[in-house]
Automatic annotation (TrEMBL):
The keyword Signal applies. Keywords: Signal. This is Tail specific protease domain-containing protein. CDD domains: Peptidase_S41 (cd06567). It comes from Acetobacter malorum DSM 14337. Residues 1-18 form the signal peptide. The lineage of its organism: Bacteria, Pseudomonadati, Pseudomonadota, Alphaproteobacteria, Acetobacterales. InterPro entries: ClpP/crotonase-like_dom_sf (IPR029045), Tail-specific_protease (IPR005151). It comes from the Bacteria.
């Protein structure tokens, strides 16, 4: 519910003077749980009245915001900065800044400082955030958020253009280098880079990198990638990239169904090290060697969310054989060398049993994504093979990965994926037999295999 806020002593809307692009600024309260109040506080250092957001009864998960709006006419494709001095009393959950951009009534961007909230008793901090305004933006709504009980006092709330950038050719901060690297990689490698107006987009992004925080930097790179509309490109800041690299890898899992059907479940795999790839691929090949007498196989890809496709296809080498499995194709139509069940950095081992003609049932689902979908595509066109379950996630493009100057990781959808017959996949891989129930898909796969014995 939206409430207009009045100053009891003056009987007027709660206003501040020129703190943004309009003068004065009128604040209102968005309080969906009716637990908060908005009022004028004591004078700030600049002589203006603070704005107080308070609750004594809110739960830690309830929230309210003080907000105002401004037109973005004339500000499109520029960098805006929101800045405020926030003082908190008895705030444990946190207080911070937020901005939402709209195209008419459609929300097109949302940002906040939730990773760096102000908390505690008697704590005062200046918070700021910068963001790029897309060409289609018509309005910005911004303000201060309070989560849970306590009081936040906001002084000097200002929303306006960031200061003009210095000569970026001489500014070689890590943040600017990171943004320049990301822009160049996306512009030259992305399948749909032509969707972005690089001439107008690049200068404000470099300006933001110089003046913004790390969160601002990565938020804008994510925004840039979203404008490619490929559903697959992504970026990770350094801390997230380090956490992902440190996660232990899972190995393929074997399950015996009756006396004559084997099931191999492939998990996600992010490792690109020679040792990690070899361990994964050999774990899969050893399963087939130890269960070579199976008359049919189920390949379960329903929990393969992606990562590195090459150890995955290598793990299935006894089923896939040594022939061509698929191709990458760039936006100009140029094809890569054919996919084969060999991983770079792995010395070729004994091929194991030849199971290339054994019946195979493949289980798919919405969590089958990225490299997991590439494995499914590699199995398309294989003789005596049928697919069960539901459509995959739809990230059927080849990503090129880059380490950014600050240690982050960027992945750009740079190539289409084709199966061994030359069919291009631009969306989910579809099963032959649609079965939404997981147990039902397994039963259908087993029944189909037994029909062929």
């Amino acid at each position: 519910m939206k409430k207009q806020v009045f100053l009891l002593c003056a009987g007027v809307f709660l206003m501040t003077s020129a703190k943004g692009l309009s003068d004065p600024v009128q604040w209102d309260l968005f309080d969906p749980q009716h637990q908060f109040t908005l009022s004028a506080g004591s004078a700030c250092a600049d002589g203006e009245k603070a704005v107080l957001l308070h609750s004594a009864t809110a739960s830690p998960k309830q929230f309210a915001v003080m907000r105002t709006a401004l037109s973005t006419d004339g500000l499109q494709n520029k960098v805006l900065r929101l800045r405020a001095e926030l003082s908190v009393q008895d705030v444990q959950a946190g207080a911070g800044l937020w901005v939402t951009l709209y195209d008419g009534t459609k929300q097109i961007a949302f940002r906040n400082t939730q990773k760096d909230m102000v908390r505690g008793h008697g704590v005062t901090r200046v918070q700021e955030m910068t963001l790029w305004v897309p060409p289609q933006a018509t309005r910005a709504v911004y303000g201060v958020l309070l989560l849970g009980p306590g009081t936040v006092s906001a002084c000097g709330v200002h929303m306006g253009p960031a200061m003009p950038a210095r000569d970026l050719n001489t500014d070689q901060s890590v943040a600017v280098q990171t943004m320049m690297f990301a822009i160049n990689a996306i512009r030259t490698q992305a399948l749909h880079s032509s969707l972005i107006d690089w001439e107008s987009r690049t200068p404000p992004l470099l300006e933001l990198a110089r003046d913004g925080s790390t969160d601002d930097l990565y938020a804008e790179i994510r925004h840039l990638l979203a404008d490619l509309h490929d559903g697959h490109s992504f970026v990770m800041p350094p801390d997230m990239a380090r956490r992902m690299a440190a996660q232990p890898e899972q190995m393929p899992v074997f399950t015996k169904i009756g006396s004559d059907i084997g099931r191999i479940a492939l998990p996600s795999l992010t490792s690109h090290s020679a040792a990690g790839m070899k361990e994964f691929s050999l774990a899969g090949q050893q399963i087939f060697t130890q269960a070579a007498a199976m008359r049919g196989w189920i390949v379960d890809l329903r929990h393969d969310r992606g990562g590195n496709m090459w150890p995955m296809v290598q793990a299935l080498r006894p089923l896939l054989g040594s022939g061509d499995l698929g191709f990458f194709e760039d936006s100009s139509g140029k094809r890569s060398a054919p996919w084969r069940a060999v991983v770079q950095g792995v010395v070729q081992q004994n091929d194991g049993p030849d199971l290339s003609r054994v019946p195979v049932a493949v289980l798919l689902g919405p969590q089958t994504a990225s490299a997991g979908e590439a494995v499914a595509i590699a199995l398309k066109g294989r003789p005596n093979t049928r697919f069960f379950g539901t459509a995959t996630h739809g990230q059927t493009s080849g990503n090129k990965s880059f380490t950014l100057p600050d240690g982050g990781m960027l992945a750009v959808a740079a190539e289409f994926e084709l199966d061994r017959t030359g069919k291009r996949y631009e969306g989910p891989v579809q099963p032959d037999g649609m079965e939404a129930d997981p147990d039902g898909a397994e039963r259908a796969a087993e029944a189909w295999l037994r029909q062929g014995f």
